[in-house]
């Protein structure tokens, strides 16, 4: 451990950790200790970091908060990996372009905090070094460091407490995702109801209908035969009103169901 980093006292609370970008437009705070810290020596991380390895502290999506003048800009990139294409989402400063954390489609419930952006990066010594088969040979790892030749397996290498946090974090993410989708469905249903009501208002306010009603037969000409037509028009109008009422009731019922579903998920 470096001389300028004091060893943590036994049973001491985890210190409040903050970090940010070079220009300090992006500042963030960790609301708790990371689940796991690792150094990756793969070729992709070497190129993307501009160094010989990348060091990340993995934490739940809701255990990090933005506290700076600006919120990070989320930049999505597609990277080809050994098991297919992965979508990486980088939280970057829009000014100096420093990436402070990243996530991806493989597990959006966790964020990889870039250790070098922490104010006290010396606290985050890696729990494991992965892809050491690609490590540059002049990087000498500490004696006794845990290593794997390729990727790590959380079920094997993580402590049980971190696996439990990972599970609970995924559950919170799924709940948040369901709430977001339910709110979107509710908004869509409300827009549909309002659109139908708007159409009815437009029809009622259409002046062309009044113009047609004001037209009369030419003076002196015989009145047209209307026998049976008035009854047909009344039946058509009643049928139209009936269908409009049924449609509005169906939309209203759908809206009530979505509202109930959203309320139940909020209680859960």
Properties at a glance:
glutathione-dependent formaldehyde- activating enzyme (gfa); Mss4-like_sf; three-stranded antiparallel β-sheet; carbon-sulfur lyase activity; 5 helices; zinc; seven-stranded mixed β-sheet; 268 residues; alpha+beta; elongated
Could you walk me through the main structural features you see in this protein, from its secondary elements to its overall organization?
It holds the Pfam family GFA. Keywords: Lyase, Metal-binding, Zinc. The chain has two domains: about 15-160, glutathione-dependent formaldehyde- activating enzyme (gfa), CATH 3.90.1590; about 160-205 and about 235-268. The chain is α+β, with helices and mostly antiparallel strands and about 270 residues long. The model is unreliable at about 1-10 and about 215-220 (pLDDT under 50). The longest helix has about 45 residues, at about 160-205. It is built from five helices and ten strands. About 40% of the residues lie in helices and about 20% in strands. A hairpin with a 2-residue loop joins strand 6 (about 75-80) and strand 7 (about 85-90). Helix 3 (about 160-205) runs antiparallel to helix 5. The strands form two sheets. It has a seven-stranded mixed beta sheet.
Distance between the termini: 45 Å
Chain-averaged pLDDT: 81
Query: What would CATH call the homologous superfamily of the largest domain?
Result: glutathione-dependent formaldehyde- activating enzyme (gfa)
- Counting helices, strands and paired strands, the structural category is alpha+beta
Radius of gyration: 32 Å
Total helix count? 5
Q: Walk across the major sheet and give the strand order.
A: 6-7-8-9-4-3-10
Provide the CATH top-level class of the largest domain.
Alpha Beta
From the 3D coordinates, which CATH architecture of the largest domain would you assign?
Alpha-Beta Complex
Number of domains: 2
Q: Which parts are unreliable, with pLDDT below 50 for 5 consecutive residues or more? A: 1-9, 216-221
Give the topology string: H per helix, E per strand.
EEEHEEEEEEEHHHH
State which percent range the strand residues make up: 15-25%
């Amino acid at each position: 451990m470096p001389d300028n980093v004091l060893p943590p006292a036994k049973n001491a609370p985890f210190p409040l950790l903050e970090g940010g970008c070079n220009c300090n437009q992006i500042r963030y705070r960790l609301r708790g200790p990371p689940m796991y810290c690792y150094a990756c020596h793969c070729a992709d991380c070497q190129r993307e970091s501009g160094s010989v390895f990348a060091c990340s502290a993995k934490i739940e999506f809701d255990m990090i908060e933005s506290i700076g003048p600006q919120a990070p800009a989320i930049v999505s990139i597609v990277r080809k990996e050994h098991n297919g294409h992965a979508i990486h989402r980088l939280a970057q400063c829009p000014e100096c372009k420093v990436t402070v954390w990243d996530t991806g489609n493989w597990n959006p419930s966790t964020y990889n905090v870039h250790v070098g952006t922490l104010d006290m990066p010396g606290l985050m010594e890696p729990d494991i070094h992965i892809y050491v088969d690609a490590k540059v040979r002049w990087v000498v790892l500490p004696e006794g460091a845990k290593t794997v030749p390729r990727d790590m397996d959380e079920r094997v290498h993580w402590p049980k407490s971190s696996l439990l946090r990972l599970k609970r974090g995924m559950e919170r993410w799924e709940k948040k995702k369901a709430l977001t989708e339910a709110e979107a469905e509710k908004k869509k249903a409300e827009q549909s109801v309002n659109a139908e009501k708007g159409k009815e208002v437009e029809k009622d306010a259409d002046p062309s209908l009044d113009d047609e009603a004001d037209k009369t037969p030419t003076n002196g000409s015989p009145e047209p035969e209307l026998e049976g037509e008035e009854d047909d028009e009344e039946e058509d109008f009643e049928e139209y009103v009936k269908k409009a009422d049924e449609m509005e009731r169906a939309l209203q019922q759908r809206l009530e169901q979505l509202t109930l579903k959203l309320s139940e998920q909020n209680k859960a």
